[in-house]
Amino acid sequence: MRIELRSDTFTKPTKEMLDYMFNAEVGDDVWEEDYTAKALEEKVASMFGMEAALFCPSGTMANQIAIKVHTQAGDEVICDYTSHVYQYEGGGIAFNSSASVKLLHGDRGKLSVNLIEAALREENVHYPRTSLVSVENTTNKGGVLVMI
Ligand SMILES: Cc1ncc(COP(=O)(O)O)c(C=O)c1O
After folding, report:
1. What are the tens digits of pLDDT across the range 61-111?
2. Residue 136's pLDDT band (cuts 50, 70, 90)
3. CA quadruple 105, 107, 110, 112: dihedral sign
4. Domain annotation for the chain: domains and CATH numbers
5. Which terminus of the chain has a lower count of CB atoms within 10 Å, N or C?
6. Measured from the CB, is residue 79 less than 6 Å from ligand 1?
7. In a mutational test of the pocket of ligand 1, which residue from 81, 88, 136 has the highest number of ligand atoms less than 8 Å from its CB?
């Protein structure tokens, strides 16, 4: 198998992987009959000690849902100016969450505690509420959202 790390969709699945997918039990999620996705969600929830998990078929979808869940309209999200959530998700923070963004200039995407602390807004009726810091793994896909 040739592993190609430019993005997750460059590596082609092997025949065994395709066979496994082809034979997986599938069904309707709303009717709770998608047993394979359900098993995955339960496994991941238990791995991370959470009550439940939600399978998201793309990173962008996971990021946008997480931002929506952790903000209210008018809030401010802190992230690096190179971050995927800001640069490559079609303005989704504004569109989906009606939130604004405070961009920081980290070290190749890495945000230090000092940078973040200096960007946190104090409570003041004139300011947006800082409710979220988005920290991305700069060497690989994966984001972490820190709720304030
Ligand atoms: C941090 C981060 N979030 C999200 C994505 C997008 O994921 P997807 O292409 O599955 O929507 C990427 C893509 O590389 C990423 O690096």
Report:
1. 999 999 999 999 999 999 999 999 999 999 999 999 999 999 999 998 999
2. confident
3. negative
4. 8-55 (no CATH), 59-147 (3.40.640.10)
5. N
6. no
7. 88
